[in-house]
Structure formats: C-alpha cells, structure tokens
Amino acid sequence: MTGCSHRSTINTVMPSAKGCEECLETGSYWVHLRLCRSCGHVGCCDDSPNRHARAHFAASHHPIIEGYDPPEGWGWCYVDDVEVDLPDRTPQLGPIPRFF
C-alpha cells in the first residue's frame, strides 16, 4: 500500500445493496459501483451522475473503497489519492444489475 496511511480502516464488510444504495432508492442509474471498505456502503462512481460513493466519503470520512463491479476488486484511497492493495476481494451478493 505504498503512499496510503489508512490500512487500518480496511474491514471485511457486507455490501449494503445489490447496486448503488441511493440510486436504487431514487430510480437513478450508475456507471460503476464502489464499496466502502470501512462500513460496506455501496455507491456509484465518479463517472456516474450522482457520485454517491464520493458523497459517502465526504459525509463519513471512510477513506478506502473497492471497485465492486465484477471482476474488479482493486482499492482506492480518497484521502491519499492512490490505488491500494486490498487484503481480499469482497464477494458479490448475487447478480448485480448493470446499466452500461
């Protein structure tokens, strides 16, 4: 995890939803999904119209997300603005709907 000082915040989590939690509630769409490795919140990426993963980071200060569209599994630290190696990949809850 070169360049990231937030390794202690990485948890084994249960995904909060089978898609972006907020987009599913509002009927919006997402481009890619991001999983908060602190609490399990599933939000949409910065290329999505609503950028719910970044909004979750801004509200919670949970720094590390996992790319959650299979077969991703990479990590990113919002604070240090670097890719991070995750100790594991979070299993999918089941088929995840895709919009694009």
UniProtKB/TrEMBL annotation:
One Gene Ontology term of the molecular function aspect: zinc ion binding
InterPro entries on file: Znf_RING/FYVE/PHD, Znf_UBP
Record Pfam families: zf-UBP
Source organism of the structure: Novosphingobium silvae
Record SUPFAM superfamilies: RING/U-box
Name recorded for this polypeptide: UBP-type domain-containing protein
Annotated signal peptide: none
Sequence ranges assigned to domain UBP-type in this UniProt record: 2-100
